[in-house]
């Protein structure tokens, strides 16, 4: 199995269903209450009540980036109809 096939974004069908394939170009760190979030990590609603801290790396302050946060199996793996829900 290739590294690409084991990527949690591919396994969770985020790449393919939600996003096109991409090449990582900067470091990005997201944390809730000092707990760093990684691909395929599970968080309880009580852990994400507060706004996350988002740290975007890179030296070019003129560059723009898009942050997409999805739950690929919401509300359940058999019916993921809320995986791309827009929270306002």
Automatic annotation (TrEMBL):
InterPro entries given in the database record: PEBP-like_sf (IPR036610), PEBP_euk (IPR035810)
Segments crossing the lipid bilayer: none
Top-level taxon of origin: Eukaryota
Protein name: Phosphatidylethanolamine-binding protein
Origin species: Helianthus annuus
Taxonomic lineage: Eukaryota, Viridiplantae, Streptophyta, Embryophyta, Tracheophyta
């Amino acid at each position: 199995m290739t590294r690409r096939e084991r990527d949690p974004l591919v396994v969770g069908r985020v790449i393919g269903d939600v996003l096109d394939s991409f090449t990582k170009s900067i470091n990005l760190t997201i944390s809730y209450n000092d707990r760093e979030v990684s691909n395929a990590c599970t968080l309880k609603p009580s852990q994400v009540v507060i706004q996350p801290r988002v740290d975007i790396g890179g030296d070019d302050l003129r560059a723009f980036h898009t942050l997409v946060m999805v739950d690929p199996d919401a509300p359940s793996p058999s019916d993921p109809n809320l995986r791309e829900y827009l929270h306002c």
